Amino acid sequence: MQIEVINLEKSFGNTKALKGVSFTVKHNSITALLGPNGAGKTTAINILTGLLKQDRGEIFYDKTPFTPKNNKIKKLIGVVPQHNNVDRDLTVVENWLVHSILYGINKEKRINKINEMLHFTGLSKHKDKKAGKLSGGMKRRLVIGRALLHEPKILFLDEPTVGLDPATRRHLWDFIKSINIKLGCTIILTTHYIEEAETLSNYVYFIDNGKIIKEGEPESLKNEVGKYTLEIFKDNKTVEEYFNSKKEALERLNSLNGVYSAKIREVNLEDVYLKLTGRKIEI
Ligand SMILES: Nc1ncnc2c1ncn2[C@@H]1O[C@H](COP(=O)(O)OP(=O)(O)OP(=O)(O)O)[C@@H](O)[C@H]1O
């Protein structure tokens, strides 16, 4: 399933959260909206999933116009919000049962689907644990599993790994990839973690201050900047210089004669954003 977003605008009082945002989510892709806090990512997701109404602009799911009242399209969407909105006093299975009933999954299918999901999320051993007692990573799997129970064609993940430790984050990345590959689900995710967008997505939209400022495949975006970054620590600041080969970067490093401390690393998406805005995303 594909999404086409054209010129979305949304204001909250005097705050213009979205200032004419257009983008496409291709069928079967993992597409990232990457940008700092307050860029407008959650607002965009909330509009695309029917939680909020835009002031202006259009959304098409496979060429069908979308409005918050379009329940047919809403049934094809799975949503994982930024915060784990689980019922802490219900077990994993009970949380999923409630969702299955709400989504009208029939009784016979319900049990099969939940068993399948326990296996897929790796939560089988914890199925009778109360959600409030699960670790952060497991809670996330519970919420993602819940969003997948009604077999959506598109999954929305709003900052899927925020607040998780690096090891749990990596496991979750593998899990998210498997949703795309094994279930054939198109995924749109928002994140302010550079590595998350780089690891997961095949297409990235940089969003900043309510606008898309750059888009492309991670590799080609990085190649536009260069291959290697030389970070020079100078006057309590880091200055980045970009090179197309390690040899050039090393020559520049040597020319500093050890006056400043410096290091060479591969170019990442943070460099793309930094070159565009003069700021870093991850603060
Ligand atoms: N309900 C609201 N009322 C007033 N202002 C809002 C509301 N929702 C969002 N905003 C403002 O709109 C702008 C975009 O917020 P949004 O939550 O979409 O950004 P974000 O990129 O998702 O960042 P974060 O990851 O911190 O949520 C911000 O300036 C925010 O303060």
From TrEMBL:
GO terms for molecular function: ATP binding; ATP hydrolysis activity. SUPFAM superfamilies: P-loop containing nucleoside triphosphate hydrolases. The keyword Nucleotide-binding applies. Keywords: ATP-binding, Nodulation, Nucleotide-binding, Transport. It comes from the Bacteria. InterPro entries: AAA+_ATPase, ABC_transporter-like_ATP-bd, ABC_transporter-like_CS, ABC_transporter_ATP-binding, P-loop_NTPase. Residues 3-234 form the ABC transporter domain. Belongs to the ABC transporter superfamily. This is ABC transporter ATP-binding protein. It comes from Deferribacter autotrophicus. The lineage of its organism: Bacteria, Pseudomonadati, Deferribacterota, Deferribacteres, Deferribacterales.
